[in-house]
Amino acid sequence: MKIATYNVNGVNGRLPVLLRWLQETTPDVACLQELKAPDEKFPEEALKELGYKAIWHGQKSWNGVAILARNTDIREVRRGLPGDPDDTHSRYIEAEVNGITIGCLYLPNGNPAPGPKFDYKLRWFDRLTAHAAELYASGKPVVLTGDYNVMPTELDVYKPERWVEDALFRPETRAAFKNLIEQGWTDAIRKLNPDKVIYTFWDYFRNAYGRDAGLRIDHFLLSPHLDSRLLNAGVDRHVRGWEKTSDHGPVWIELADK
What we know:
By secondary structure, the protein is of the alpha+beta class. The protein has helices spanning 15-25, 44-48, 116-137, 171-181, 188-192, 208-211, 224-227, and strands at residues 2-7, 29-33, 52-57, 65-70, 75-79, 92-97, 100-106, 142-147, 186-187, 218-222, 230-235, 251-255.
């Protein structure tokens, strides 16, 4: 089973790129972030033509998450994280596909830091951690994937000394990610590539992609049931080089059957 995550940076504006990537790689499940579209503007029919059923949680101009499943059923479990009924951002959706619980998330950026946006990021991280603890305790096979907007270590960022004050790399953010991991989750990319420089995001400016000046901010966290089934993981880096593409590359894992 192949599961992918992809921050599309505008699902309609980048639709040709998304459809091309889906046709070329045919993931069984694809989690999307930054739809930047209200629910009624989600391109359900175009995805259906490729064999994908979808659930989505949209928002006009900002945020938005979706889960696609190819030639199989998808059952929505939750939209939005618990813990803050006043939070109107569309940043989390959860489903069951083929017996696996999949949480698709778009964690807040948090800049400028310090400040209200950074405070919101850390509160959201706390809510994610609390919900993740419940999922972990359920004993079910769980994947938590998406754009976490955090570089966990210096290995995950080009020239880390330039990022020390950024919300994605501040000690509080990295500590929050570490706290989440220490519940017992496996960072799939790092498990298979413990010492390799791997990036998932390259800014549009200063030829970042051409210079490979990137960040690893899109992550797969796996519960123990799935850790033992992990076969492969990687980044479709070449997609970042396509015309009118997202500033993220798709990230994927392959799991063995039970």
